[in-house]
Amino acid sequence: MLRRTIIFHGLVMGAIIVSCFVAAAYGLADVLKENIYEVGKLKPIDSVPKLKVGDKAPDFTLPVVSGGKASLSRYRGKKNVVISFVPAAWTPVCSEQWPGYNIAKGIFDAYDAQLIGITVDNIPTLFAWTHQMGKLWFPALSDFWPHGAVADKYGVLRSDGVSERALFVIDKKGIIRYIDIHDINKRPPLDDLVKELKKL
Amino acid sequence: MMKKTMIFIAVLAVGLCVLHSESLAAQKQLAGGDALPAIKLPVPQTPAAKSYVGLTSGETFAVSQIKAEVLIIEIFNMYCSNCQREAPRVNELNRLINKDQNLKGRIKMIGIGAGNTPLEVEVFRKNYEVLFPLFPDEDYAIHKSVGEVRTPFFICAKRNADGSLKVFNTNKGGFPDAAQFLKEIVTSSGL
Q1: CATH (residue range A2-198)
Q2: B153 exposed, middle or buried (CB, 10 Å; 0-12, 13-18, 19+)?
Q3: Which residue of A has its CA nearest to B122?
Q4: What pTM does this model have?
Q5: Which of A38, A51, A152, B75 has its Cα between 20 and 30 A from that of A12?
């Protein structure tokens, strides 16, 4: 009886503590507030890495939201590539990460890098979501079917079917030079990516 | 033993509830009539920005030190698409203030990048050719102090006789017409 009472009160306290400290400061844009699905605080990383720095980046071909298909191999020997996996459309953090990159084209150009955005959403969802970001200068790719196959190949597919928030920097030889499998709840600072691009 | 444990748990739970309510109170969104919270910023590096805020030395300064009768603070975020869309109108507001000889120097603007690093703020400034000073708020400390507002959020504050600043108007999400917004600011501040 005593043990059960203590467990019960422990659970109540736990709930209070969680409600005290879970902040919702991630999805900030006022215009998005009614369309963003609040996911709460998620397990920071929920996948097992399959690639490491120095590995050859697995090739892939995926449909692009603006039409057609894009392959990683088309950039081999021509451009450095930054792949930005974001977990899902219409969720906090993700809905602001790409708009930020969208005004940082000058930085990517300075390091001769092409940004590629990938989510596991289907094309119609990606279309609606990216449309409200304005015109993107980089391709947004759909890894919807076979579901999350590319995310899985890169070791960033989470157990619930969305991808991690992850960045891969791939040089012109197709070699992975940087991997950031980031806490899904937080936006990676642009500074970290720039630091890595400088090393290329 | 059981009674003591229960009392201990109850006291702890009540304490946490109080903490919770205090943290909610701290997150109250800033509104007209509120005193502007103490906001500290790094002294800008460029001579033009230093001259604009009216400071020449030191590493940090209090927002209340900015030499102006009315201060407009935009809480923005480099990653926020709405802030990006609003940027030209915000620039227009700044232009209208500075071309009006009656308002120039009396109303000043600054921007605070919620959760943004100095590099991220610089990307925003360069991309939209923002002419008023922008400051980073990397750890969201300022963002929290104004109530974790959605961006963009505009705080219009007026100088009190004692030198402090009092909020007289706020705007959430932006304004469709810069001239109209300026008119509202001039009217409600009594400039």
Answers
A1: 3.40.30.10
A2: buried
A3: A104
A4: 0.83
A5: A38
